[in-house]
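README: folding subset

This subset contains proteins for which both the sequence and a predicted structure token string are available. Records are stored as plain text. Below is the entry for Methyltransferase (175 residues), shown exactly as it appears on disk.
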Amino acid sequence: MDKNKEKTKRDRFVKTLHFLEPTLPKGSRILDLGTPNDMSAYLQANGYEVDNAYGEDFDLNPEIIAKEGYDAVTIFEVLEHLINPMGILQQIKAPKLYASVPLSLWFAKAYRNKNDEWDQHFHEFEDWQFDWLLKKAGWNIERNEKWTSPVKKIGFRPLLRKVTPRYYIVEASRA
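--- output ---
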């Protein structure tokens, strides 16, 4: 991975950790809805106990994550890949949810990878849409934050990426 992509990933990890730390104490048990990845390893290295859902198809089997005994569930850039994200959001048993999604950008189409049916976005949200989805699934939003995802390129779209929020993260609790 090139240095710019590594820095972007590291910045996202740091921002995510800073978002969690004020309300999720170190040592908390987290069910991360995704395969084991660099982000879950980063959270473990920073004092959290993390289990992963190992890449199950949540559209077909949302009930597989209805596991007890976790302090929080994290879903970082997963819900946009699902056809029915409400199904999984309703199945979560943990009292806290931390989720991030890419925001819909007026100057870019939704991400699509024609070579991999799983690595593409079915949804890209506006913040109000994601808030509404969480509310309908039985969650109260406690706080939220947005951040940009700049790229080191020259042009109009790279300039817009420096000032336009791309990611939206929320902390929610059961209604």
